[in-house]
Amino acid sequence: MFIVNVEGAIHKEGKWLLIRRSTKEEHAGGTISLVGGQCEIEGVSSDILERTLHREIFEEIGIEVTIVRYVNSSSFVTDSGHCVIDIVFLCYYKSGEPYAKSTEEIDEVLWMETSEILTHQDSPVYLKDNIRLAEDLLKENR
User: Can you say how many angstroms the Cα of residue 120 is from the centroid of all Cα atoms in its chain?
Assistant: First the structure.
């Protein structure tokens, strides 16, 4: 059985909105990350990935986004052995002032350019890969 996780590659004026995951987090604590979270069991529903992403972004950093399109999906296993499917969407910032609303999950909110993310010591390889893919999609949308 998989946990389904969604993340937003949130873009505004040449920068990406990222978080530094809390050091208390079981998976990837202290690293820089996209914003998102797990889908909840809802029974029969539609647009669960999109609704989950909107909810998680608002709960974690207090902003609204416009979801533009799918970027990538991958799977991984957490340190505790949970199997996760992760789905990334390209999003544009819409409104609100981002802040670490969920302090149990987030230590810091960051706006970073692609080049900064790709060279930052706390950027995991999968984040760099997702940002590269999202950046390519941005170029296609222009």
Answer: 17
